[in-house]
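Example for tutorial group B:
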């Protein structure tokens, strides 16, 4: 993160250990101390590091500082749910509060985390808002630009929005119609992935498709089904087979449809909250 002019110079670091640091007590209290709903051990290093940088502070390694850390041969505490499960629960909680839509990468690396309860995060979300903390995108660009994001199949993800309304599958089944609802985060049923194959995929692995009546429905993903393939052009989402655009004009009555594409039509303009590989948009 910076060039040392002397071997004794402090070095800025994106992440530190969660238990071996010095911090001003007042600043520590303003940052909300440790998240009290993180269980036992694991994830606190990420939470402390993210919020320190994103909320106006910095982290430095001081070469001339010495800290002793003596490990026991056994844990002085127990993990009722197991070490791995506790770590997963804690890190999911951190991802949901601090990583914004980049949490998609966390879930790509730890898909089992989606099934772990992480508790109520309202207090931590409000803390972040009250401190006017920066975005995780800012953290990656300014604090850890050396970090290369993994090359995954996704081109965009997160909520699929029209202003304050989001495409939502609620708890619907195969063949049902998705709808627009008020955007809420985090909310699994408003989470979507657009991938390189042209699929728009729900949080539970189903695909956005077109019925024979040209209405948008949810279907099992099938790479050979041309009714499920889409391409993005600017902010429009175009059904490849019909060359028509995803349209919310009649969403409140008959559901989402596809219709002839029109330049600048509001009901045909869609935004993902996270562009993973924006250069792929045609």
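The residue assignment follows.
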């Amino acid at each position: 993160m910076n060039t040392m002019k002397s071997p004794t110079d402090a070095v800025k670091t994106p992440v530190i250990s969660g238990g071996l640091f010095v911090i001003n007590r007042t600043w520590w209290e303003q940052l909300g101390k440790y998240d009290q709903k993180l269980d036992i051990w694991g994830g606190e290093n990420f939470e402390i590091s993210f919020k320190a940088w994103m909320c106006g502070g910095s982290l430095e390694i001081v070469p001339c500082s010495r800290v002793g850390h003596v490990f026991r041969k056994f844990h002085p505490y127990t993990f009722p749910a197991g070490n791995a499960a506790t770590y997963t629960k804690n890190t999911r909680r951190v991802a949901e509060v601090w990583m914004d839509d980049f949490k998609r990468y966390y879930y790509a690396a730890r898909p089992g985390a989606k099934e772990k309860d992480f508790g109520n995060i309202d207090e931590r979300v409000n803390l972040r808002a009250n401190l006017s903390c920066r975005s995780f995108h800012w953290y990656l660009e300014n604090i850890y630009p050396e970090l290369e994001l993994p090359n995954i199949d996704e081109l965009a993800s997160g909520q699929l929005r029209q202003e304050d309304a989001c495409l939502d599958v609620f708890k619907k089944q195969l063949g049902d119609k998705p709808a627009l609802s008020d955007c809420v985060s985090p909310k699994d049923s408003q989470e979507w992935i657009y991938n390189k194959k042209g699929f728009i995929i729900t949080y539970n692995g189903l695909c956005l498709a077109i019925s024979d009546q040209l209405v948008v429905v949810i279907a099992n993903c099938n790479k050979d089904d041309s009714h499920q393939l889409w391409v993005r052009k600017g902010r429009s989402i175009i059904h490849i087979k019909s060359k028509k655009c995803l349209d919310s004009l009649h969403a409140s009555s008959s559901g989402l449809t596809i219709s002839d594409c029109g330049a600048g039509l509001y009901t045909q303009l869609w935004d993902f909250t996270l562009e993973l590989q924006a250069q792929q948009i045609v």
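The first helix runs from residue 25 to 30. Compare this with the pattern of hydrophobic and polar residues in the output above.
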